[in-house]
Amino acid sequence: MITLETVSYAYPRTDREAVAGISLSLKGGECILVSGHSGSGKTTLCLAAAGILEHEYGGKKSGRVTIDGKDVREYRDLSDLSSRVGILFDDPDSQLLFTTVEEEILSALERRGFSPEEVEERLARVLVVTGLAGLKDRPPHALSGGQKQRVVLATTLALSTDILILDEPTSELDEEGTGSIVRLLSDLKAQGKAILLVEQNYSKMAGLVDRIIIMENGRIRTEGPPGTVLQDEVARRTLIPDFTGIRTGMLGGNGDSPIIRTKGLSFSYGDGEALSGIDLSIAPGEFVAIVGENGSGKTTLVKHFIGLLRPGKGSVMVDGKNAATAPIAELAHSVGLVFQNPDHMFFADSVFEEVAFGVDNLGIPEREKAVMDALAAVRLTASRELYPRWLSRGERQRLAIACVLAMQPPVLVLDEPTTGLDGAESREIIGILKQLQENGHTIIIVTHSREIADRCADRVIRMEAGKIISDARMEALHG
C-alpha cells in the first residue's frame, strides 16, 4: 500500500538529512512499529510516507514514495491524499479546530461527502470505541492531553481509510485508554488496514506488531520481526523501559514543614468540577508521582502550584506564598512547571534563547553557564542555534525541561516528562530528576507510567474524578 524507495530529506535551512536513503514497504493487514531516539527521523518518516513532505514542505527531497501504486506527486493535494491515508500527528492540539468534540469528528466526515445516515452511524460508533461518548459536547481545549489525543484519533478512524499513520497515538493515554486503542487497531488490522505506528514502548503494542524498524541518525539501524529485533541490545533499551535500580533512598518527607500544602482545594471548569476537597502536603526533597486516568484532575492540580489556576475554594500555599494571590512571576522563583505539551512553552528563535528567556526574566547569574548547563543536562548542547519547533517531539520535551532547570527553582513539576522519549531516554530523564532531588530539589511528576511511579518515586498519589483516593509512601510498599 505504501512504498518508499531510497527516500532522503533535509528540512529548510539545514543540510543535515532528517531521513537518509530509507526504503520500506507497508502492506494491507500489516503493522510496522517505528522507534528510535528523539531526532532519529521517526516523524519525518511518517510525513514522507503520508506524502505530506512532497505537498507541504520545502527542503531537499530525493527518492520516491508511492501510495496504492501511485506516486505521491501525482495526487492533487493533501485532501486527495487524505482519502487514502489517515494520519495522527504527535501534537493533538495542532489538529483540533472546532468548539465541541462532536463537531471535530463531524467536520471530517462531512467534508468526505458521506450520506447523513452514514455520518451519524460512523460518529456514534467511533465515539463509543474511543470512549468519548460522554465528552461529545465538551470543548476540546478544556480536555486533558489524553482526551485530546483520543479526539484526534477518533477523527482519523472515523474516515475508515485503508492506511493509518499514527505518530505516538497512545503517548498521553492511561492504561485503560491505551488498551482500548490497541484492541481497536487490532480489529482494523484484521480487516486489512495497513498501520504505520511510531511508538516508544513495545510492550503496549506487542500483540499488534508484525515488524519493527529502529531509526538512528535518519537511517534504518535494524529491521525485522519483533523476536529478531529485540535481540539487539540497543533496540531492547529503546523499546523496553527499564528503571531498575534508579530509585535512591527516601530523601524527603521526614517531618519537614511542607513546601506545598493545599487545604480543601476545589476547582471547576464551568459546570464540571475538576477538583474536590484536595488536602495535600509535600515536604522539601520529596519525589512524588501523581497518577490516575485521563481527566482525573492531575494536571488541574499541579497548575495551582504555579498560579496558572486559582482555587475556586480552599487554599494553596507554595514555599510560604499564597498561590491564590501571588503573581505568577513570584511563584516562578519557587516552582517550575514543564507542561504536558512542550510546544505551549516555546516562542524564541533558537534553543539557546528559549532557555535564556527564563534565566533573564528571573535574573539568574552567569547567564551563559546557566543556559549551557541546562542544555548539557538534557543532551541538547549541539542544538543551541536551532529553531525550537524544528526539534523532534522528544527533543522539544527535553528543551522544555531545560527551560525550567535553568531557572533553578526549588520545586520542579513535570507533566508527563517522558512523553515522546524512548526507554533509554526516559531512564536518562528520570536519572536527571533523581540527581536534582539529591541536590535538594522537590520533584513532582504527573505520569501514566506505572514503572516510573512504582520504581522511581518516593511517594505515589492516585487521583480519580478530582479526588485523591490513595497516597502511599513507597518505602512502606517495598519494605
**How does the overall form come out from the CA principal axes?**
globular
Query: In total, how many beta strands?
Result: 20
Strand percentage: 25-35%
Widest sheet, order of strands: 6-7-8-3-9-10
Explain what you see.
The chain is an alpha/beta fold and 479 residues long. The chain folds into two domains: 2-239, P-loop containing nucleotide triphosphate hydrolases (Rossmann fold, 3-Layer(aba) Sandwich), CATH 3.40.50.300; 260-478, Rossmann fold (3-Layer(aba) Sandwich), CATH 3.40.50. The protein is 34% helix and 26% strand. It has a six-stranded mixed β-sheet, sandwiched between helices. A hairpin with a 2-residue loop joins strand 4 and strand 5. The longest helix is centred in the middle third of the chain and has 16 residues, at 175-190. It is globular. The termini are far apart. The mean pLDDT is 88.
Provide key terms for this protein.
Rossmann fold, 2 domains, about 475 residues, 18 helices
Task: Please provide a brief summary of the model.
The mean pLDDT is 88. This protein has 18 helices and 20 strands.
Secondary structure elements and pairings:
Elements: E1 2-10, E2 17-26, E3 31-36, H1 42-49, H2 52-56, E4 60-67, E5 70-71, H3 78-82, E6 85-88, H4 101-111, H5 116-129, H6 145-158, E7 163-167, H7 175-190, E8 194-198, H8 202-205, E9 211-216, E10 219-224, H9 226-229, H10 233-239, E11 260-269, E12 272-282, E13 287-292, H11 298-303, E14 313-318, E15 321-322, H12 328-331, E16 335-338, H13 351-362, H14 367-377, H15 393-405, E17 411-415, H16 423-438, E18 442-446, H17 450-456, E19 459-464, E20 467-473, H18 474-478
